[in-house]
């Protein structure tokens, strides 16, 4: 099992980050994400929580031993998110659908206002567990887990760069205007 | 905007996404501010906005959903999705700090 975790601030208010989530793809840093579809969405009339279930289609350049073993570069991810405006929490869980009998990657992301500057910054905290299934031949499963973990870290970095750009272009004018007005 | 699973669904997806985004952008900040209201006022706001979403985007959502559901079937993703949903329906957020 490989664990991965990181946390950092986006220098945008929580509501801007959450609105930006729906504009994250496509972006040039994350060309591995090809398709994004909403499978289900509900707005809870009591709590105001928005639940969204999506399927993301990705294409990964994989080493040939992986494509030979599993025969595909297409990978699909199920993502379920909850946006709670009352507590200002966005909670995103993602699990791989493809190759799930071979390996699982379970990712959880929380977006919350930064405790030190809740009006202007948003904390992003991410944890992931990557596990190759044990019935694989041990050395293969170790190599696979290692490759998936490395790939996850690379994509996490690309996601950060890509989303930062998206947020900047989405809000730059708006936020600098607001700063001037204050 | 990103593409849909199949090109046939992409125009409907874009139409639906645009509708949702417009609604959501009007919804979110007042909903955040509503945290300081009474429970009753907050629920009244949520109800009104949930209805508004249904009115504005319900129709295009139905068309888009039908298209995507067919695409999911055609791509052979239906079983994988059903399996994942059975494992973890995620009807509510996972318990905090539950992973790792």
TrEMBL record, chain A:
<protein>
    <submittedName>
        <fullName>MSF1-domain-containing protein</fullName>
    </submittedName>
</protein>
<dbReference type="GO" id="GO:0005758">
    <property type="term" value="C:mitochondrial intermembrane space"/>
</dbReference>
<dbReference type="InterPro" id="IPR006797">
    <property type="entry name" value="PRELI/MSF1_dom"/>
</dbReference>
<feature type="domain" description="PRELI/MSF1">
    <location>
        <begin position="1"/>
        <end position="175"/>
    </location>
</feature>
<dbReference type="InterPro" id="IPR037365">
    <property type="entry name" value="Slowmo/Ups"/>
</dbReference>
<dbReference type="Pfam" id="PF04707">
    <property type="entry name" value="PRELI"/>
</dbReference>
From TrEMBL, chain B:
<dbReference type="GO" id="GO:0005758">
    <property type="term" value="C:mitochondrial intermembrane space"/>
</dbReference>
<dbReference type="GO" id="GO:1990050">
    <property type="term" value="F:phosphatidic acid transfer activity"/>
</dbReference>
<protein>
    <submittedName>
        <fullName>Uncharacterized protein</fullName>
    </submittedName>
</protein>
<comment type="similarity">
    <text>Belongs to the TRIAP1/MDM35 family.</text>
</comment>
<dbReference type="GO" id="GO:0005829">
    <property type="term" value="C:cytosol"/>
</dbReference>
<dbReference type="GO" id="GO:0045332">
    <property type="term" value="P:phospholipid translocation"/>
</dbReference>
<dbReference type="GO" id="GO:0005634">
    <property type="term" value="C:nucleus"/>
</dbReference>
<keyword id="KW-1015">Disulfide bond</keyword>
<dbReference type="InterPro" id="IPR007918">
    <property type="entry name" value="MDM35_apoptosis"/>
</dbReference>
<dbReference type="Pfam" id="PF05254">
    <property type="entry name" value="UPF0203"/>
</dbReference>
């Amino acid at each position: 099992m490989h664990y991965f975790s990181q946390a950092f601030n986006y220098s945008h208010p929580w509501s801007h980050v959450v609105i930006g989530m729906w504009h994250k793809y496509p972006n040039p840093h994350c060309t591995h994400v090809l398709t994004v579809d909403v499978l289900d969405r509900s707005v809870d009339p009591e709590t105001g929580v928005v639940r969204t279930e999506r399927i993301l289609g990705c294409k990964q350049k994989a080493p040939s031993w992986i494509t030979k073993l599993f025969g595909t570069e297409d990978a699909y991810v199920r993502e379920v998110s909850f946006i709670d405006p009352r507590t200002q929490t966005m909670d995103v869980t993602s699990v791989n659908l493809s190759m799930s009998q071979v390996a699982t990657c379970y990712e959880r992301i929380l977006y919350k206002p930064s405790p030190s500057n809740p009006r202007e910054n948003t904390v992003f905290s991410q944890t992931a567990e990557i596990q190759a299934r044990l019935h694989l031949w041990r050395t293969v499963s170790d190599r696979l887990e290692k490759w998936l973990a490395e790939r996850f870290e690379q994509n996490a970095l690309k996601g950060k760069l890509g989303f930062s750009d998206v947020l900047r272009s989405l809000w730059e004018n708006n936020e600098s205007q607001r700063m001037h007005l204050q | 905007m990103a593409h849909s699973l199949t090109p046939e669904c992409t125009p409907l997806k874009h139409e639906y996404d645009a509708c949702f985004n417009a609604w959501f952008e009007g919804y979110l900040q007042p909903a955040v501010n509503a945290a300081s209201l009474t429970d009753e006022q907050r629920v009244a706001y949520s109800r009104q906005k949930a209805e508004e979403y249904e009115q504005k985007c319900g129709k295009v959502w139905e068309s888009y959903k039908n298209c995507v559901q067919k695409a999911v079937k055609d791509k052979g993703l239906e079983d994988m999705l059903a399996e994942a949903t059975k494992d973890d329906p995620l009807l509510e957020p996972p318990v905090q700090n539950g992973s790792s």
